[in-house]
Design brief:
By secondary structure, this protein is an alpha/beta fold. The chain folds into 4 domains: 7-92, Alpha-Beta Plaits (2-Layer Sandwich); 190-371, DHBP synthase (Alpha-Beta Complex), CATH 3.90.870; 393-489, Nucleotidyltransferase, domain 5 (2-Layer Sandwich); 547-745, ATPase, nucleotide binding domain (Nucleotidyltransferase, domain 5). Helices cover 31% and strands 20% of the residues. A 10-stranded mixed sheet has the order 6-13-7-8-12-9-11-10-14-15, sandwiched between helices. A 7-stranded mixed sheet has the order 27-28-24-23-22-29-30, sandwiched between helices. A 6-stranded mixed sheet has the order 16-19-18-17-20-21, with helices on both faces. Helix 15 crosses helix 18, helix 18 crosses helix 19 and helix 20 (671-682) packs antiparallel against helix 21.
Length: 773
């Protein structure tokens, strides 16, 4: 019988292929197909040298993708012939260095196998709070360098015992080279402060505190949480008082999907999100017939944010309780969550009654990700734990551009590293106006540049000169000798949406429209924008239409006090006689509000810059209905309440009118809307009905404007900006645009708000090296 010719191939696999059990996957396949050779990690991903007959090698290449481990993502497989004698057998070689091009996978929720071990009386990890394997556990939160090996993680402080070392070294074991591998004999330990009675399990003691309305600071994967019994109104109220958090919704953790279903409506998409390795907080509609929960969990809202346990510690704690917990960030209001035991003892003193802590260091802060379900497709509101720093493959046309670092915006700050057709968007960091968040931004920027061996040729920043991210980017460009590119805020939103949706450079090069709706950003004409229709594409845009600019009386104060926007809108709509038209709305102005002073500011333009903001329009309408007119406690509080108020009435309501005037650009004026809204108020119509009519009138006017400026059948319309996270607005705009033949393009992998801004800056900044942007 003839012996088949032995062929050699060198196979390079790029993508998320380190720390996910990919080398054991290769080893198992090679042995099953009787191949010889080796597999190794290096700075570019995984390299395989394989010898065998052609049929076996072809099968091997196909099964590399088709049977990949659950956390792996293969972006490219490159194959070349390989000369040389075939070795005996197939081995897993030690990691090699080299240019860093591979990705680090995100932290992943406890897998079913590790969860089963937690409650198996015969397993040596029964009840151990830090079990994991190649399919789950901490990743970015504990890593300090690439290659992703134990020596480059927080687990370097915990030498493995013989039993763990044997699992770690066995390619047939699911803990093969799982860097955080540990057990009770050698791994991190858990304790409670103040210490419970001698001999009492810290988890039992923490659960007893929670059942008794106590508040516990719990150390998770990416930071501390503050936990309390979500079914106890007194505990929820006390947590709000201590944290000085008046109304911002609390995140909740439930034991199972079935428990979530007691309180919220679930569809298959929501179930899949809750049970995914990312395990985000999922915003879900409350069930009208659901089990009762305190109103203080999410005031003025008709949705709750639930997540499932995503660490062994969470599973063990939740198993000791009978219902859901509040699981909110461990911080003082508006600060980043704390990550060290020392910070927790200091910054959470007075907030927590006890601290459930451990000695595995959190090297990198990671907030919980937030995703909205029930929108036709998941909508990412905050991209952090479970998603970052997974590289995002960019659409065609962006592969040969220079390495670009984009610095993002001022709020919901992220940054983005772009090269070789991929974008690495950082986790959500926070608002850079906060000193601790700014420090974290700088630290994460250093870490990512080190992890990915990244020196930019281009640094892209927002055009706003006072953004701290812009200032830092300019300094970094000087330091690196990189080209500094200033990118228009709303053009960056548009580009982020197009790139997120996979629209390539040629398809999105021109003839595309962008409907960008947000709070505000600096426009290309030097004024403040926030309700824009752009015409163009990646290579440049023009302002085709916009919301009529209305003054922001008091500047930043108007972003915190909705009544100011209400007065400005009414005066813009009706002139000096606005008071005579306002009617009952005047009763919603705060007692003692300096209305006369504000009117003089509007007359003279003193500290009252004009702005075409969609976000401030929502604030004004909310204030007209008596919804948080005096002051909001968190961003978009009034707009979120207005959306919840409208939801049950949208199906039956008719849109308010608006006026479209001017030519180039077209201007959308809301005076007709205000006239009709005030008439409905005078007639005693329900607030929910009025809120619904406003939402529908808003989307109708924008869709009409898109058509008026030339978006014909087949035209791509990118939908971006924070206001597009309003689910009524997003769904109705998509429906109206499709009805006239347009193709709406929405975000899917990155937030529509400023958390996705850096992605758009990166692609536009890189393109600026080829042609003007």
């Amino acid at each position: 019988m003839a012996i088949p010719d032995v062929l050699g191939r060198r196979i390079r696999v790029r993508g998320l292929v380190q720390g996910v059990g990919f080398r054991p996957h290769v080893w198992h396949l090679a042995r099953a197909l009787n191949l010889a050779g080796s597999v190794a990690n290096d700075g570019e991903g995984v390299t395989i040298h394989a010898w065998g007959d052609a049929a076996a090698l072809d099968s091997f290449q196909g099964r590399l993708r088709g049977e990949a481990p659950p956390l792996a993502r293969i972006d490219a497989v490159e194959v070349v012939a390989h000369d040389g004698p075939a070795p005996d057998g197939f081995t897993i070689a030690a990691s090699a260095g080299g240019t860093v091009r591979t990705g680090i996978v995100p932290d992943a929720a406890t897998c079913p196998a590790c969860r089963a071990e937690l409650f198996d009386p015969a397993d040596r990890r029964r009840g151990y709070a830090f079990g994991n394997c190649t399919h789950c556990g901490p990743r970015l939160s504990i890593v300090s360098a690439i290659p992703y090996d134990r020596a480059n993680t927080a687990m370097a402080a915990f030498p493995m015992c013989p039993a763990c070392a044997a699992e770690y070294a066995d390619p047939a074991n699911r803990r093969f080279h799982a860097q955080p591998t540990a057990c009770p004999a050698c791994g991190p330990r858990l304790w409670l402060e103040p210490a419970p009675d001698a001999g009492r399990d810290p988890l039992d003691a923490a659960a007893a505190l929670l059942r008794g309305a106590g508040i516990v600071a719990l150390k998770g994967i990416g930071g501390f949480h503050l936990a309390c019994d979500a079914t106890n109104p007194d505990a929820v109220r006390e947590l709000r008082r201590r944290k000085a958090r008046d109304a911002k919704p609390f995140a909740l953790m439930a034991r199972t999907v079935a428990e979530v279903g007691r309180y919220c409506r679930l569809d298959e998409d929501a179930r899949a999100l809750l049970e995914s390795p990312a395990a985000p907080i999922v915003l879900l509609p409350c069930r009208p017939d659901g089990a009762p929960l305190p109103d203080g969990l999410a005031p003025d809202q008709d949705h709750l944010g639930f997540m499932l346990p995503y660490t062994p510690l969470h599973h063990l704690l939740m198993a000791r309780l009978d219902g859901p917990l509040v699981m909110t960030s461990g911080n003082r209001s508006d600060e980043p969550q704390v990550i060290t035991n020392e910070q927790a003892r200091d910054r959470l003193a007075g907030l927590a009654d006890a601290w459930l802590m451990h000695d595995r260091a959190i090297l990198n802060r990671l907030d919980d990700s937030v995703v909205a379900a029930g929108c036709g497709a998941p909508v990412i509101l905050r991209r952090a734990r479970g998603y970052a720093p997974a590289p995002l493959p960019l659409p065609p046309g962006f592969g040969g551009l220079p390495s670009t670092l984009a610095m993002g915006g001022e709020l919901k700050a992220t940054f983005c590293l772009m090269r070789n057709g991929q974008a690495i968007l950082s986790q959500h960091i926070g608002d850079l106006e906060d000193a601790a968040a700014l420090d974290d931004y700088r630290a994460m920027l250093r870490l990512y540049r080190d992890l990915f061996d990244f020196t930019p040729a281009v640094v892209a920043v927002d055009t706003h000169p006072d953004y701290l991210s812009t200032t830092l980017g300019a300094a970094l460009a000087r330091e690196c000798g990189a080209r500094l590119v200033r990118v228009g805020h709303h053009h960056a939103h548009m580009a982020a949406c197009l790139a997120d949706a996979g629209i390539g450079l040629e398809e999105g090069g021109a003839g595309v429209f962008g409907l960008i709706l947000d709070g505000l950003g600096l426009g290309i004409d030097g004024t403040l924008w926030g309700g824009e229709i752009l015409r163009g594409g990646y290579r440049g845009v023009a302002r085709a239409a916009h919301i009529a600019p209305v003054a922001l009386p008091g500047g930043a104060a108007a972003m915190r006090e909705p009544w100011r926007n209400l007065v400005a809108q009414l005066r813009h709509a009706f002139g000096d006689g606005w008071r005579d038209r306002a009617g009952a709305v005047l009763a919603h102005l705060p007692a003692g509000a300096p209305v006369a002073v504000l009117e003089r500011m509007l007359e003279t333009g003193t500290n009252a810059p004009p702005c075409s903001s969609a976000g401030r329009l929502f604030d004004a309408v909310a204030a007209a209905l008596g919804v948080h007119p005096a002051r909001i406690g968190h961003e978009a509080q009034a707009a979120l309440a207005l959306e919840a108020l409208a939801r049950d009435h949208v199906a039956a309501a008719e849109p308010y009118p608006a006026a479209l005037g001017g030519d180039d650009p077209l201007v959308i004026d809301w005076a007709p809307m205000w006239q009709a809204l005030l008439a409905d108020l005078a007639a005693g119509r329900a607030s929910g009905w009025i809120a619904a009519r406003f939402h529908l009138g808003f989307t109708q006017a924008l869709a009409d404007a898109v058509a008026r400026v030339g978006a014909g059948p087949g035209a791509l319309v990118a939908l971006s900006g924070g206001v597009l996270q309003n689910r009524i607005v997003l769904a109705d705009l998509q429906s109206r645009l499709r009805a006239v033949g347009c193709q709406p393009v929405a975000h899917g992998r990155v937030p529509a708000n400023d958390g996705g801004l850096a992605l758009g800056q990166a692609v536009l900044g890189a393109l600026a090296t080829l042609s003007p942007v």
